[in-house]
Structure formats: C-alpha cells, structure tokens
Amino acid sequence: MSVASMRDRDALHLAHLDALQQAYAAHLEAAGVDALWIYSGAPHQHYADDQTATFRAYGHFMHWAPLPELSHSWLLIRPGQRPLLQIHAPDDFWHLPARRPDAAWSQAFEIRLSDEMTPPPCAAKRRAVIGELDAEQAKAMGATLNPPALLAALDHGRLHKSAHEQACLIDANRAALAGHAAARQAFEGGVSELDIHLAYLAASRQREASLPYDSIVALNRHAGVLHYQHYAQTLPGERHSLLVDAGHRELGYCADITRTWAGPEAPDLFVSLIASMQTLHQRLVAACAPGVAFVALHGQMHHELAQLLVEHGVLRCSAEAAVEAGFTRAFCPHGLGHSLGIQVHDVGGRQDAAGAPLPPPTSDPALRLTRTLTPNMVVTIEPGCYVIPMLLEPLRCGAEAAQIDWALVDRLAPCGGIRLEDNVAITATGQRNLTLAADNGH
User: Fold this and answer.
1) Pairing of strands 417-419, 384-386
2) How many Cα atoms are found within 13 Å in the side-chain-facing hemisphere of 312?
3) Distance between CA atoms of residues 377 and 337, nearest Å
4) One domain, residues 269 and 373
5) Same domain, 122 and 167
6) Does 273 lie in the same domain as 338?
7) Annotated binding site, which residues?
8) Are the C-beta atoms of 360 and 293 separated by less than 8 Å?
9) Nearest residue to 395 (alpha-carbon basis) of 314, 300, 338
C-alpha cells in the first residue's frame, strides 16, 4: 500500500471513530447514561487445566479498538470527551506485555497502560458497563450491567458498515482468497485435508488462533457435513471434491468465503451442478439491493435450487412442488447468509431498527438474517446443495420417494456437497461484491 493510500485509510479510520463517538453520545443520552465502560474480556481456562481457550476481545470493544487479542482492558466512553483506552500491560517475563499502539487511529483516544485489571475510575453518576462481567462486579462499579435497550441500539449500530469497515473487509477477503487459491492448488496436487489447511494458513499469512472461525476443509463426503471440524491427515483413495470454508481477520473484521471444487474422480453430474450453482449464486448476489427482504431472498434460493435439481434430473417434480414438499430443505438445510463484520455472524441481524426481535420463519430456523436489506449492510450470500444422509433418508422411505432419482443422489453422495459464498455490501442502488472487489485488486 502506498503512503498516500495509507493516509487515506487512516483518514477513513479516524472518520469511523468520530462517527462512533457521535452515535454513542446519542445512544447513551437515550438510555439515560452519562458514562459507559466496555470490557474487552478475559481468557477462560479449560476445566481442570491451566491452559486457556483462544481469546477474542468483545465485539463492541473491537468496534472502537482493533485489538482482538487484548484482554483485561477497558474503554470508557463519555460524551463530549475523548474515549479512554486502558490497556492491561503488567510487567511480565512469561509473556510479552501489550504495548501502546502507534497507528493513526490511536490519536482518537486517551491511552493508559496499567498493571491493574480493574476499570479506570469515573466520576459520572449514571453509569453502565457492557461485557462479560457478573452482577457483583457491576455493582461494585456502581454501574448497570448490559442494559438491554442500550445493547440493542449498539448491535443495530454494528449492522451498517462505514467506509473504513468495508475497506477492512476487502483487505480480509484479499488475504482469504490467497489462501483459497493455495488450498485449491494443494488439492490438485493430491494431499490430505491437513496439508490443504496448512497451505491455506501459509498463503493467507495467519496462524490458527488468528482465524475468524475454524476453517472447514472437507474432502469428498466430508463436504456434506456443514461444519465439518476435522483435518484428516491421510489422503483418501479417490478425490471427488473439496469444500473450503475459511476466512481472515483484518483489524478485527472478518472475511467469510467458501469455494467448492470437483476432483478428478467426480462424476460429470457433480461438475455440472457446480457450474449451475455458480450461476445461481451470481443471480442471488445480483438480487441484493435496498428494500429486499432477506427472508424472501432466502426463499428465492430454495425455488432456484429446486429448478436446478429438476433440470439435472435429481427431482422428478416441478420446482414449486419440490419446495412445498420440503425437498430443497433436505438438500440445503442452512440459511442463505448472515450479517458480517467484527463477528462472522455479526450482531443485529435478527432484530428490527427499534431492537424488537425478528425471528426466522419456522420452516428455516437456521436463518441468521431476517431483516430487510439497507445501504451499508454487509452480508454473506452462500447457497448450498448437499447429500446429507440423515436428512434424505426419511424422504427415501416416504410416500414421495418416487419424486427423487435416488440413483443420481447415490452418484453424488461421494462428493458430499457444494457451497459457494461471497461477502456483499449493500449500496444505495444495489450491491458491491467485496470478494470480487478484493479478487480484482480494488
């Protein structure tokens, strides 16, 4: 990145923090709060062990300070004053202590290094605190703990991404795409899931603890396990398919990309399905625009998936009948996508602007985004098509079994499934595919 580009990015970040300061002032006034502490959080030890699980700072803390690994630290937000960032940095010879950040964004804060885990003092009378604390800790601070109305407002504020946040997401996508390219190359070279995973980490320049979520690296039938969690160390005898769902984190913001590739032993039907799913995916991305209800877009996915399966001979009924009978929900049981940002499944996606719950339809309980799309939302679009035995077997034995060509299903089974996922920003008139922008170097 050039010096001029870096200056532009620094200006975007400072503008993001200025807007955040104004938004918090309005939210705190509405909540009747004069000062707000935000706790970064603390690592948790495994039960009966002295090792801790991988730590990640609280999302609302990272919304201000892009320091995902900073534990036992505090932000103090007071309208009309610079935010105070207290960094826990005790003298320590076991670990490298946290240091004072010198990036341009740090100019927006009053920064203190402290060897204490306790919050910075505050003289304000009406105080609140958000984060992973218990009632006794909040009581000792004289603060209201995690007030629901305030949290709902802050969650809603995370739903729409600033120019700085979208730039971070593009950078995260760019690094993730380098990992996906390396994963595909490793797959074509004929190596195990573990080796593909390691190739991804090396090319995307990250360690496992830095990943925004555990990568899914699934060969063959494993691609039909939606959140497949292992990395087999041996190469299977045949290579039918590879599904990689993996991301990257940039200044706290998460890329979430999925790609599926056919292997040398894949049947022609699977190769054709991937091509058709790519076209379906592109149509769904193009359909994203302000005013589009995401629940309706999810429904469109099911109708288009049904038509695709009819055209390939997998289903022997009309697309409408397939959706009505629930066939497509057996082939794709997950939602079309979710809000994306500091968290992979970012907050605010199942509530309206006033904070009232917007639960998913009973037919689609896994749908994580139920809102109408508005400018500057960033969402994932990730249609899928899988052969999942536990979902398909009841149909095989049911009254409508003849509506499915089980010989074709069995032919596809060794491939597991297909998922394609890009990250999409909603614009004033349509959408911008951030994954494509990253791939094109924009």
Assistant:
1) antiparallel
2) 25
3) 12
4) yes
5) no
6) yes
7) 245, 256, 338, 382, 421
8) no
9) 314
CA distance 241 to 416: 8
Residue where a domain terminates, one of 124, 159, 194? 159
> What are the pLDDT digits (tens) for 172-227?
999 999 999 999 999 999 999 999 999 999 999 999 999 999 999 999 999 999 99
- In this structure, the answer to whether residues 262 and 394 fall within a common structural domain is yes
pLDDT tens string 291-329: 999 999 999 999 999 999 999 999 999 999 999 999 999
Instruction: Output the CA–CA distances (angstroms, integers) from residue 442 to 77, 195, 374, in the order listed.
Output: 35, 30, 23
What is the number of structural domains in the chain?
Answer: 2
Whole domain around residue 122: which residue ranges? Answer: 3-159
The domain boundary, picked from 130, 159, 188, lies at 159
Coil, strand, or helix at residue 262? strand
- Same domain for 144 and 266, yes or no, is no
Residues 384 and 304 in one domain: yes
Binding site per annotation, positions for Mn(2+) = 245, 256, 338, 382, 421
User: Which residue stretches of 223-293 are H helix?
Assistant: 268-286
**Number of Cβ within a 10 Å radius of residue 85:** 26
What is the biggest distance separating any 2 CA atoms in the chain, rounded to whole angstroms? Answer: 73
Q: Which two tokens stand for residue 342?
A: 């500091």
